[in-house]
Amino acid sequence: MRRIAKYDFPVSGVRRFLEPGPIVLVSSQCKGERNIMTLGWHVVLEFTPSLIGLMISSANHSFGMIRASGECVVNLPTTALTDIVVGIGNTSGAEIDKFAHFGLTAEQASAVAAPLIAECHAAFECRLHDDVLVDTYNFFIFEVVKAHVAPRPKHPQTLHYTGDGVFMVAGKTISRKSLFRPGML
Amino acid sequence: MRRIAKYDFPVSGVRRFLEPGPIVLVSSQCKGERNIMTLGWHVVLEFTPSLIGLMISSANHSFGMIRASGECVVNLPTTALTDIVVGIGNTSGAEIDKFAHFGLTAEQASAVAAPLIAECHAAFECRLHDDVLVDTYNFFIFEVVKAHVAPRPKHPQTLHYTGDGVFMVAGKTISRKSLFRPGML
């Protein structure tokens, strides 16, 4: 599988990749153990600081690791990884090392201990910002502290989960920039 | 513009439409006034009760109306409404009646006072469930109490905002159902 070279990207701009609603792969590390989970329930909350919310069900093996470490990396896979995305979502880190099992490469992050996934288009290093809703809704508010993005394609072919085993694949892009007021882009 | 007939849909199933991350139109009503805003910052939080989170910037005229009424309707537009979606996001309900200005039809909801938008593919009636993060993050947790969905197409051509005036349009769908464990769909 192809490892994708990524470059620094402004953390205030991660909405470009997350607001369209793709499935992401969340990698974590805790006490020497590493893991990956799939996640579709995420939301952008603020540009600066760069805040995102992740609903991580406590049924996931990753839940305890992310809670204890207060860190994770949100990685953006494309259709090149479709079957691996499904495989990651249908196995448990309690039983297998998902990096090894799925042939993914763990890369050293800059600001957190959790690894980046080299085969993904983008990777956002996250540090826990607020856990006020973790007990009640399994909802973590993270700050994206470092962003890595491949320079092209500008709009990667992401996967968008609809339930029942079906994904919508990102289609064409259209611009309506000329219809926007300058402050509203 | 075409009004779209919609039928009752299980509220526990709204993730099919919201998890892929489309731009939605949020309609509200308060003290006889009605309004619509565009929103891309939303997240599914739970199947049952059917909970969703909406980050509604307090800069929006709708913010006060939704907070005071504790209700809204999340409407799902398709590419047939692209220019109207942009128009709604670039005007203020403090200045115009957006239903009248954009030629949209307000339909009576079942469980809330806020109107449905007849020209949208789906409409989810929402009642405020938890406002604990409204002061700190403008983040509202709503329960979807009633869902209305057009029977076809099964996967509507939704709009997914990437910033900078550019939308990704929903592309083809692919199934990997055979690779899922039964409880993981």
UniProtKB/TrEMBL annotation, chains A, B:
The keyword Flavoprotein belongs to this UniProt entry's keyword annotation: yes
InterPro entries: Flavin_Rdtase-like_dom, Flavoredoxin, Split_barrel_FMN-bd
Span of domain Flavin reductase like: 16-168
One Gene Ontology term of the molecular function aspect: oxidoreductase activity, acting on the CH-NH group of donors, NAD or NADP as acceptor
Keyword terms, alphabetized: Flavoprotein
Cofactors demanded by this protein: FMN
PANTHER family in the cross-refs: FLAVOREDOXIN, FLAVOREDOXIN-RELATED-RELATED
Family statement drawn from the similarity comment of this UniProt entry: Belongs to the flavoredoxin family.
Entry protein name: Flavin reductase (DIM6/NTAB) family NADH-FMN oxidoreductase RutF
Organism (species): Rhodopseudomonas pentothenatexigens
Upper lineage: Bacteria, Pseudomonadati, Pseudomonadota, Alphaproteobacteria, Hyphomicrobiales
